[in-house]
Specification:
Helix 1 crosses helix 8 and helix 8 crosses helix 9. The protein is built from 13 helices and 19 strands. It folds into 2 domains: 174 residues, Flavin prenyltransferase-like (Rossmann fold), CATH 3.40.50; 212 residues, Rossmann fold. The strands form 5 sheets. An 8-stranded mixed beta sheet has the order 12-11-8-13-16-17-18-19, sandwiched between helices. A 5-stranded parallel beta sheet has the order 2-1-3-4-5, with helices on both faces. The protein has a two-stranded antiparallel ribbon with strand order 6-7. By secondary structure, the protein is of the alpha/beta class. A hairpin with a 5-residue loop joins strand 6 and strand 7. Pathway: Cofactor biosynthesis; coenzyme A biosynthesis; CoA from (R)-pantothenate: step 3/5; Cofactor biosynthesis; coenzyme A biosynthesis; CoA from (R)-pantothenate: step 2/5. Its EC number is 4.1.1.36, 6.3.2.5. Keywords: Decarboxylase, Flavoprotein, FMN, Ligase, Lyase, Magnesium, Metal-binding, Multifunctional enzyme. In the N-terminal section; belongs to the HFCD (homo-oligomeric flavin containing Cys decarboxylase) superfamily.
Length: 420
C-alpha cells in the first residue's frame, strides 16, 4: 500500500528543533514525509538534517527544480500538511493568503487536511491579530491546535510552548484517519471532564474511585483533531497532556464543578466523562487520623456532592448547547442507564459496564450511547478513541441541527473550504 504523503512545514521559531523528533516519528510510523521549511527555520535546523531524516530534498524557494513546479505539486499530492512549529508570522501569512516562499505556496495549493501547531511567546499568542488569524484559519477548516503551557525561550514561561511531538503525531493520525472531510467541530468550543475526583478525609487519605481518565483524554484528543477548541477538566490523572487542549487540573468534586461551569459558559458542548464522587466526608481532619489500640475507628459521616451533570443539563449556558453524560454501571446496565438519562436531563448518555477488570485503566471500551430522543447507538469493544469519535459524531449532528446554532464566537459561516 502507498504510504500516506505528509508535508511537514517548519517555520522559524526556536521550537524547530522539536520538529526533528516529529519527523522521525512520522517516518518511523509509515508516513512518506517531506519537509518544507521557511528560510528562517534554516537558521535553527539546517537543510541537510531535514534531508537526511526525511529522505527527500529540501528547499525553501519556488525557484528550485522549477520544471517540477514544486510550489503547486507538493501541496496537490499531499494527504496531510502539518506545520510545526507555526509562528505568528506564518499564521498571519496563511490566514491572508500570502505566498512568498515554498511553504506558503504549498498551503495555498493543498486540498488535504491542514494542521497548525503554533509556538510563540504568550504575548504573541494572545495578541488580537493572532487570535483573529487563528479564527480565520479555523473557519476555513484548518485544525489549529492550542499551544501547551510551559517553559518558553529564555526564562519565560506561559502558554505558547509547542506540544510534545508524540501528542502532535496523535493529532495527525486522527486527522488522517478521518480522510479529506473538513473538521466538523471547527469553530466549536467543547468542554470535557476526565478522571476521578478525590474527597479528602485527612491529609493522607481520601475517598476516590478507579477512573484513570483515559476515556476523557481520548474525547479531548479526538475533538481537537476534529477542529474544536477543547477545555479538558482533569481530576487526578497521570496521563500525557493531549496536544491542542486547554488543561485545567482539579482534585475534588466541588473544584470540578467550579471549573466545568466556568468553561461551559461559552461552550457548544459539555461532555462529562469524569467519575465524580457522589459523596464526600462531612468533616475533614486537619491531622492524620490515628489508629488506637483497642478502639474501633469512628464512623465516617458523608454528605452529598453537587450533581454537576444534572446542573449543567438543567441550566444550559447558551442555546443549543449539547450535554453528554457517562453512566458506569455494574448490573442492569441499560435499564439503569435509561433511568439516569431521564433523571439527569442530558442529551446523550454513554452507558458502559465497569468493574475491577473492565474499562478502568484500559485502552479499550465498549458502550451504548442513549439519546434523549430515544435513539440507541452501540459501540463495539475497541479503542477508546473509537467510542470518542462516535460520541462526537452524535454531538456534531445535534450541533448542525436547527437547535445547534452557530459556533461560539464564530462569524456567519461561509462556504466550506478544506484548505488553509
Amino acid at each position: 500500500m502507498d504510504k500516506p504523503k505528509v508535508v511537514l512545514g517548519v517555520s522559524g521559531g526556536i521550537a524547530a528543533y522539536k520538529a526533528c523528533e516529529l519527523l522521525r516519528r512520522l517516518t518511523e510510523s509509515g508516513h512518506d514525509t517531506r519537509v518544507v521549511p521557511t528560510a528562517s527555520a534554516l537558521h535553527f535546523v539546517g537543510a541537510p538534517t531535514w534531508a537526511a531524516l526525511s529522505g527527500h530534498p529540501v528547499s525553501t524557494e519556488v525557484w528550485s527544480d522549477v520544471h517540477e513546479v514544486p510550489h503547486v505539486r507538493i501541496g496537490q499530492g499531499a494527504d496531510l500538511v502539518v506545520v510545526a512549529p507555526a509562528t505568528a508570522d506564518l499564521l498571519a501569512k496563511a490566514a491572508h493568503g500570502l505566498a512568498d516562499d515554498l511553504l506558503t505556496n504549498t498551503l495555498l495549493t493543498a486540498r488535504c487536511p491542514v494542521v497548525f501547531a503554533p509556538a510563540m511567546h504568550t504575548e504573541m499568542w494572545e495578541h488580537p491579530a493572532t487570535r483573529e488569524n487563528v479564527a480565520t484559519l479555523r473557519r476555513r477548516g484548518a485544525v489549529v491546535i492550542e499551544p501547551a503551557v510551559g517553559r518558553l525561550t529564555g526564562a519565560d514561561s506561559g502558554k505558547g510552548r509547542l506540544p510534545d511531538p508524540d501528542a502532535i503525531l496523535a493529532v495527525c493520525r486522527r486527522v488522517l484517519a478521518r480522510g479529506p472531510a473538513a473538521p466538523d467541530l471547527a469553530g466549536r468550543h467543547v468542554v470535557v471532564s476526565a478522571g476521578g475526583t478525590r474527597e479528602p478525609l485527612d491529609p493522607v487519605r481520601y475517598l476516590g474511585n478507579r477512573s484513570s481518565g483515559r476515556q476523557g483524554y481520548a474525547l479531548a484528543a479526538t475533538a481537537a483533531a476534529r477542529g474544536a477548541r477543547v477545555t479538558l477538566v482533569a481530576a487526578n490523572t497521570d496521563l500525557p497532556d493531549p496536544a491542542g487542549v486547554d488543561l485545567v487540573r482539579v482534585g475534588t468534586a466541588v473544584q470540578l464543578r467550579e471549573a466545568v461551569l466556568k468553561a461551559a459558559a461559552d461552550a457548544d458542548a459539555v461532555v462529562m466523562a469524569a467519575a465524580v464522587a457522589d459523596f464526600r466526608p462531612a468533616s475533614y481532619a486537619t491531622g492524620k487520623i490515628k489508629k488506637r489500640d483497642g478502639e474501633e475507628p469512628a464512623p465516617v459521616a458523608l454528605v452529598r456532592n453537587p450533581d454537576v451533570l444534572a446542573e449543567v443539563s438543567a441550566d444550559r449556558a447558551r442555546p443549543g448547547q449539547v450535554v453528554v453524560g457517562f453512566a458506569a454501571e455494574t448490573d442492569d446496565v441499560l435499564a439503569n442507564g435509561r433511568a439516569k438519562l431521564r433523571r439527569k436531563g442530558c442529551d446523550l448518555l454513554v452507558v458502559n459496564e465497569v468493574g475491577e477488570s473492565r474499562t478502568f485503566g484500559s485502552a479499550l471500551n465498549e458502550a451504548v450511547v442513549l439519546g434523549a430522543d430515544g435513539t440507541e447507538t452501540a459501540v463495539p469493544h475497541g479503542p477508546k478513541e473509537d467510542l470518542a469519535d462516535t460520541v462526537w459524531d452524535l454531538v456534531a449532528a445535534r450541533l448542525a441541527g436547527p437547535a445547534g446554532g452557530a459556533p461560539s464566537g464564530a462569524a456567519p459561516a461561509g462556504p466550506p473550504v478544506n484548505t488553509a
